[in-house]
Design brief:
Layout: H1 3-8, E1 16-17, H2 23-36, E2 41-53, E3 60-70, E4 73-83, E5 87-89, E6 119-122, E7 128-134, H3 139-154, E8 159-165, H4 175-187, H5 193-199, H6 213-224, H7 230-233, H8 236-251, E9 259-262, E10 265-266
Parallel strand pairs: 7-8
Antiparallel strand pairs: 1-5, 2-3, 3-4, 4-5, 6-8, 7-9, 9-10
Helix pairs in contact: 3-5, 4-8
Keywords: Signal
Protein name: Disulfide bond formation protein DsbA
Pfam families: Thioredoxin_4
Length: 278
Amino acid sequence: MSFISKILFISLFLTTTISANSIDDKILEFEKNRFSNNKRVEIKNLSINFKKSLPVKNWYGYIIDIDAKIADKNVKAKDIVFSNGTVVSPDLFDIKTGNSLKEMMTLPLTSKYYDKKRLIAGNHDAKDKIVIFSDPLCPFCLDYVPDIIKFVNKNSQNIALYYYHFPLLQIHKAANALSKAMLVASNKGVKDVTLKVYEADFDSYFNADEADEKKILNAFNKVLKTNIKLDEIQNKEIQKEIQKDMLMGENVMVEGTPTIFINGEQDKTKNKYKQLGR
């Protein structure tokens, strides 16, 4: 279920009849009517962000951009629906595998995601490009990120690796301060910041739910042998950069970490990078 649906508490039956002119118009009209049934919701704008033909005859998947006001709060979100022009469904499943076709509904990256400031390994001009959204305290990320960095380093002329901060603050509160320290260190020209952080053992210094930024920064400085000041990571511009990274992730429907894009397409397997640089 999408973020907006959770807020609105609106149920969508497995198949619901719709009516309008073109199939795209039908989808937008259906979504507008569905959300407008809740009097707390004011729809400001609906648009089709992405449309994909499915491996099911005459069916399409849609990613809808929703701009709404809910209880005087502006909300921007995305919703995924499927339709053949006659009925609409919140999900479809492959009857053989049981897999949700939502797995296919991922947004491609634009060139703005290949920001040289976010390059952590490889060659910015390389044809093959990897973008990763990650949380430095995510257990799976801690195993995965060093491997992908080292792989790119071995193929440094042929691959570019870009890193975006995506701290999962609801479960890793300390990841925000750690991410800010990483960003400050990177801006200061400290080499291999990301790899050093992901290979470090911060467990002996603080817990993932630690809120004391000074304690987190002291550990960072000790482990990475830096001398970053507290006011540097508490600078509003640094926090804005972290928030910008997170927003860029949310704009392409990043929800968890690590999320990997290979040459603009999200890789659900997280293993396709091993085929690059050949």
